[in-house]
UniProtKB/TrEMBL annotation:
GO terms for molecular function: nicotinamide phosphoribosyltransferase activity; nicotinate phosphoribosyltransferase activity. This is Nicotinate phosphoribosyltransferase. The keyword Cell membrane does not apply. It catalyses: 5-phospho-alpha-D-ribose 1-diphosphate + nicotinate + ATP + H2O = nicotinate beta-D-ribonucleotide + ADP + phosphate + diphosphate. It comes from the Bacteria. The gene is nadC1. It comes from Weissella oryzae (strain DSM 25784 / JCM 18191 / LMG 30913 / SG25). The keyword DNA-binding does not apply.
Length: 500
């Protein structure tokens, strides 16, 4: 099949409603109005205590040189839904916005801006969908990977998920995110090529089935490879698989590097103990046992409690699809917009539930750490013109919803998380090497108190609004209430309803 329109750009990787709004802005001549949008999520994924920010590199690749290709314009024209003057404007349009974000690998939390877009309403609207698409998925997978890293300690984690991933892009960028979150290597060779992630793997049951015999298969494999891991569960792990692996390892001696065996079915605790005994008794105490089969952080924890003799974990489906929570609910909200007279006016979205009321105004996130040991005290979300480094007598941090909960922090460092990535459309950020990002993530996770790091029921990390940001929010809520009273019609409503 030949495509009618060449798929030669990512610019239309957006929801139709963005283009519909852009056309309105354009035709009403407000498309150059400035606005600030912020991307954040309201709930941490997997009930984890933190998330690992990933997706910046892909977002940068997407944003730089973002233009409407000829086929993009032809396609839009052929839909019959867009005005010719608008299409004409798109042909010369270039992204001119400012983007701020944390470094990839940064530990991030709910209810704080993690990407800030400042520019025209036109530009900011177009990129919403792709930014959410990228950051939601990659952050989700990096966080899932970090949970797995948490339970395995220093043991090796291999990413095996490509066959189960939600198509090609998810496999590739999910693998990269998993690497950032703590995986050591991947079975995806293309991810290895693109990102220089170490590739690793064993062999499949097919090899044994083709030879119809464990020994023959292992022997052939050993004669054609130096580093070998034999998959021993095709017929019977303890009776035929492991004995065949040991026989080949002995016969081949120094001609091969017998790394170990993989088991992929059955009771992994029970079987791994049997395998360990056999390998030790045969004089291979250093041979490793790799396990796979629908593993995740919960099964791994259980296997460890059962004293399973597993050294290396091969993990696919449950990592790459974020099986127990397949989406991160990141959202993108306008927080400030230029009015008719050129002034920036902060804006709020009201909701019946406190968590869903947006935090108005352009903000910075400050990570507050103790001077004495570098441990995190919390994040301080402040309006752009505030600087918590300059506060005398300590910083008062209070819970943004339960405002009666507060603490005073003294002798601290405040580090701004949102850094300039693009300024007025120009890339000003040097993307760090992947190894650096990975090491940074490990370091930042390590800097968290254990109470926030544990997988099960972690403590809630404090993400606090500055007093100024909080008061500002309350004022805007009051303004909206006045507005609704002024323009709102009377409705016969249930008396028990509350309003913000
Ligand atoms: N000792 C164990 N404790 C807890 N979970 C385990 C244990 N052993 C295996 N599992 C997990 O239980 C799930 C099902 O394992 P099961 O024994 O049914 O595999 P299997 O169905 O025999 O394998 P396959 O169908 O691939 O041949 C998998 O997620 C596996 O990782
Ligand atoms: O279980 P996962 O975490 O997704 O890890 C990847 C799985 O992929 C392979 O299985 P394969 O596709 O050959 O099928 P299988 O599940 O029947 O073993 C491998 O043997 C693992 O079991
Ligand atoms: O190398 C392996 O063992 C492997 C690779 C992909 C999926 N399952 C296993």
């Amino acid at each position: 099949m030949t495509l009618e329109y060449q798929d030669d750009s990512l610019t239309l990787h957006t929801d139709a409603y963005q283009l519909s709004m852009m056309q309105t802005y354009f035709m009403k001549n407000i498309h150059e109005r400035k606005a600030v949008y912020e991307l954040f999520f309201r709930k941490l994924p997997f009930k984890n205590g933190y998330a690992v920010f990933a997706g910046l590199e892909r977002a940068v690749n997407y944003l730089k040189d973002l233009t409407f290709s000829k086929t993009d314009i032809s396609y839009l024209r052929d839909t019959g839904q867009f005005d010719e003057a608008f299409l004409d404007y798109l042909t010369t349009w270039r992204f001119k916005g400012t983007i701020r974000a944390p470094r990839e690998g940064e530990v991030i939390f709910n209810n704080e801006p993690i990407v800030q877009v400042e520019g025209t309403v036109f530009d900011a609207q177009l990129i919403e969908t792709a930014l959410l698409n990228i950051v939601n998925y990659q952050t989700l997978i990096a966080t899932k990977a970090a949970r797995m890293r948490y339970v395995v300690g220093n043991q090796t984690l291999l990413e095996f998920g490509t066959r189960r991933a939600q198509e090609l892009d998810a496999a590739i960028w999910g693998t990269r995110a998993a690497y950032i979150g703590g995986f050591d290597a991947t079975s995806n060779v293309r991810a290895g090529k693109i990102f220089n992630i170490p590739i690793s793997g064993t062999h499949a049951h097919a090899l044994v089935q083709i030879y119809r015999n464990d020994y023959e298969a292992f022997k052939a494999y050993a004669q054609t490879h130096h580093n070998v891991v034999f998959l021993v569960d095709t017929y019977d792990t303890l009776r035929s698989g492991v004995p065949a692996a040991i026989r080949v390892a002995k016969e081949m001696g120094d001609q091969i590097n017998f790394i170990g065996v993989r088991i992929d079915s059955g009771d992994l605790a029970y079987i791994s103990k049997g395998v360990r005994k056999m390998l030790d008794a045969a004089g291979f105490p250093d041979a490793k046992i790799v396990a796979s089969n629908d593993l995740d952080e919960t099964t791994i924890t259980s296997l460890k409690m059962q004293d399973a003799k597993i050294d290396t974990w091969g993990i696919g489906t449950k990592l790459i699809t974020a099986y127990d929570q397949p989406a991160l609910g990141g959202v993108y909200k306008v927080v400030s917009v230029e009015n008719e007279t050129g002034e920036m006016v902060d804006t709020i979205k009201i909701s019946g539930s406190a968590e869903k009321i947006s935090n108005p105004g352009k903000k910075q996130v400050w990570r507050i750490t103790r001077n004495k040991d570098g441990k995190s005290e919390g994040d301080y979300v402040a309006l752009w013109d505030e600087d918590p480094r300059a506060v005398k007598g300590g910083l008062v941090m209070f819970h943004p919803v339960n405002t009666y909960v507060s603490k005073r922090v003294t002798d601290y460092k405040a580090r701004p998380l949102l850094q300039d990535i693009f300024l007025d459309g120009k890339l000003v950020y040097d993307l760090p090497a992947l190894e650096e990002i990975k090491a940074y993530a490990a370091e930042q996770i390590d800097a968290l108190w254990l109470e926030y790091r544990r997988n099960l029921n972690p403590q809630e990390y404090p993400v606090d609004l500055s007093s100024k940001a909080w008061n500002h929010k309350m004022n805007l809520i009051r303004n909206v209430r006045n507005y609704v009273n002024e323009v709102g019609i009377e409705i016969d409503e249930h008396q028990g309803d509350y309003h913000a």
